[in-house]
Amino acid sequence: MKLRWLPLLAALVLAHAATAAPRNTGPWNLAALKAVPKAEWGGRTNLVQSLYYEGEPFKGQPTRIFAYYGRPEGAGPFPAMVLVHGGGGKAFPLWAEHWAKRGYCAIAMDLAGNGPAGRLPDGGPDQGDVAKFRDFTDADAKDMWTYHAVAAVLRGHSLLASRPEVDRNRIGVTGISWGGYLTCIVAGIDDRLKVAVPVYGCGFLHENSVWLEPRISKMTPEHRDRWVSHWDPSRYLAGVSCPILFLNGSNDFAYPMDSYKKCYQLVAERLRKVSLKIKLPHGHIWTFGEVDQFVDSHLKGGPPLAALDAMRITGESVTTKVTAPVPVTKAEFHFTTDSGPWQKRNWQTVPAQMAGGLVTAKLPTERPLTCYLSVTDSRGVAVSTQHEELAVAK
């Protein structure tokens, strides 16, 4: 019975694949990165084993990537997840264990050239902002951090897919913060993925992000255009052909709501879901129910998250249609009348009305107004409409 959703989901994915936009694969050689990398396996503790696998050359020298591999007990084949950490992060064994306990194989790799005890002599570039945003030319583009990090994720996927206990047709990716940024790129270029969840991270960093003033605004126009064309997720998201959930907070310090919305709008509407939470904490948090349930719905045949139609604003009210496979327990209207930096806006939340499959709320009279609707189901997971901005009438 749990697999009852798979035929419909498969049909939707295949229908989209037939009409998907041509992928921009950037500087990455996908054929080479889909090959199984050489790996050296270390010790295992409970459900998690350490390993090193082959990375891309850095400044002409070979590199290794340190990782943790989690797997459930038993023979499988199991679905699997690629886990992509954010800034200041590392290969987290507990993250791999989280997924192994849920019946998945998982690989959590380090993306800063580090091993379990610090810097590797044969590691790739570090993940500091100087390395991420430095100027580069075509000749040394493949020494950039984003190039190496994306390649490491793709190689990690290839290694997972080669394991006898892994179902290579049920592999997804999720990343947190800078890992979400990388997940947006990877989801746009790796056609093997069956599900993706970027948490916080997005693109359009050159239009609005925490890095705009300290880094990007100080670039020459040529440097900026070159960086954006190579490394901003906005150049890759249109190629996404798997279901994708965008999870973020209303006041995220790094990835504001305007850039986030522009990113998810690049993905075909039938493939994307949004979960926008008021003042969501930012950190290496891998216990969001939305992530687990969304992945389960696509890799294990679990019930999908609720679906919300586009918000309709008519007169003094706002409405959306909700379709949910499990009972909806709460509907809410979220709004702010503040303007200025997204990170500093004060949000208010009030109950919305539910009747006949519709969620409706009364609009405040104040303008400007930014608002959206959300529903939470009996599993405690929430989905949102995209936010809309109502300007002061001229």
In the CATH hierarchy, the architecture of the largest domain is: 3-Layer(aba) Sandwich
Averaging pLDDT over every residue, what do you get? 94
The domain tally reads 2
Largest sheet: 9 strands, mixed
Beta-strand segment tally: 21
Q: Can you tell me the CATH superfamily of the largest domain?
A: Alpha/Beta hydrolase fold, catalytic domain
N-to-C order of helices and strands: HHEEEEHEEEHHEHEHEHEHEEEEEEEEEE
Bin the strand percentage: 25-35%
In the CATH scheme, the class of the largest domain would be Alpha Beta
Low-pLDDT segments, ≥5 res: 1-19
What does this structure look like?
- The chain contains 9 helices and 21 strands.
- The chain is of the alpha+beta class.
- The protein has 2 domains: 2-303, Rossmann fold (3-Layer(aba) Sandwich); 308-390, Immunoglobulins (Immunoglobulin-like), CATH 2.60.40.
- The strands form 4 sheets. The chain has a 9-stranded mixed β-sheet, sandwiched between helices.
- The radius of gyration is 21 Å and the shape is globular.
- Strand 19 and strand 20 form a beta hairpin.
Key features of this structure:
394 residues, alpha+beta, Rossmann fold, Immunoglobulin-like, 2 domains, five-stranded antiparallel beta sheet
Quick structural overview:
The protein has 9 helices and 21 strands. The protein is an alpha+beta fold and 394 residues long.
